[in-house]
Each structure stands twice: as C-alpha cells, then as structure tokens.
Amino acid sequence: MPLFSAEHLTMRFGGLTAVDDFSLALEPRDLVGLIGPNGAGKTTVFNMISGMLQTDRGKGFFPGRGYNRVEAKCRHPQGVARTFQNIRLFQDLKVTENVMISYHGRLRSSFLGAVLGTSLYRREEREMRDGAMTLLRQVYLEEMAEAKAGALSYGQQRRLEIARALATKPSLLLLDEPAAGMNPRETEELMAFFLKVKEDFSLTVLLIEHDMRVVMGICQRIKVLTRGGRLPRERPVRSGRIPGHFRLSG
Q: Which CATH class is domain 4-79+170-249?
C-alpha cells in the first residue's frame, strides 16, 4: 500500500492550465525525483500536495487517514512538510530559535500561558529547545546553535531549513530544488546528507531538482512533467551511485 497518492490533480490559473491530470503514488521510504523544464508545473504540484493551493480537480490522500482538496488545513498534522526553492529562514533569529518555531503547532499551552510563563509553557519550551538541539545535532549544526541564521553558509542554511521541516515530524518531505546555487562540492555533501536523513527519519521524499547529478545520484524513480502534463513513457535507468535499476515514469 502506498504511503501517499495523488490522483488526477489539475490546476488552472485563468485560461492557463498549470498542471493537467497529474497522478503519483509514493511507497514508504521512496525517494522520487520530479523533473521537467521551467514552467512545467513542478512547484505547482508541490503547492497542491502541501495545501498551499486548492486544486481545481483531483485529490491526494494517505491511505487509512486521507485528505482531499478541501482539507488543506489538515495536511501538516498528517505528515507533509516542505522546503522552498528560495530559502525561508528568520535570518535575525538564532539557529535554535528557527527550529523551535516549527514546534509551536504542537504546543498545548495557550498564548496567555506564554505571557504568564505558566509551568506548562516552561516545560514545553524546554522540550522545544531540547528537540531543536537534537535535530541540529542530526543535521550537523549543533555548534552553530547560538549563531544567527543569516550568518550560516548557503549549505548550512539548507540543512537548517530541512531541520525545521523535520521538527513537524513528517512522513512525506517535499524538497524544492535544494541544490540550487550550490557548487559541486556542496552538492555532493548535500546528496549524502539527504540519504542519511531519509534513513534516519524513515522518510518518503519527493524531490524537484534541475541538477541531474543529484537526480540520477539519489532518486529511485523519476517522474517527468512537461507543460503541465506527464511524459507518457517509462524506461529503466541505471545510476552510478546507488545499485539497482531506476525507473523513469510518466
């Protein structure tokens, strides 16, 4: 049974069809690449899956839990997290604080409890900080915990963004061009990092990426979009990095 599936997703902006009849099934611990030219609709697919856009047609669901296109507000609690092509961090906040913010959706204490500093809020704040430090350790940023996010290198900011996503405890992680702007060495390090995070957190990953070294190096399957539609063919692809056959699917 798939962890997640999307069926017949369609998105139109006025007279423009950005995505047309897109379907996808993701098995547990899949690492799937979504590729295609600029304007093909890749980020729009991410926006629909993550609930940022309400689809014109189609639905996505986790078997046994389910959600459809009118339940966008439920998607983060059901295990979907994403990063963005342009890094979105609070540059003037500490690295630790950036991660702690992602825990706020699970707080039980109220705003008034935070203002009054109740025992429940103080306990949850300690738990948030401890959880943030654990995540920073796992993404190799523990030593930068007290630094401002804006002081990190580009590659470190990418890892911090992923730590923030992991703080929501997703089962499905959407990565939008994570290697954009990186040099070859940074890209190699990022690929190894993705594989480690995927295994450590038992994640299913859907990846948008234009750097084919990344796509062919770590992805198990490749989904192709062109002008909002699927490429209607499938053929085997062999990767030089990960043993086994890889499938290019429409």
A: alpha beta
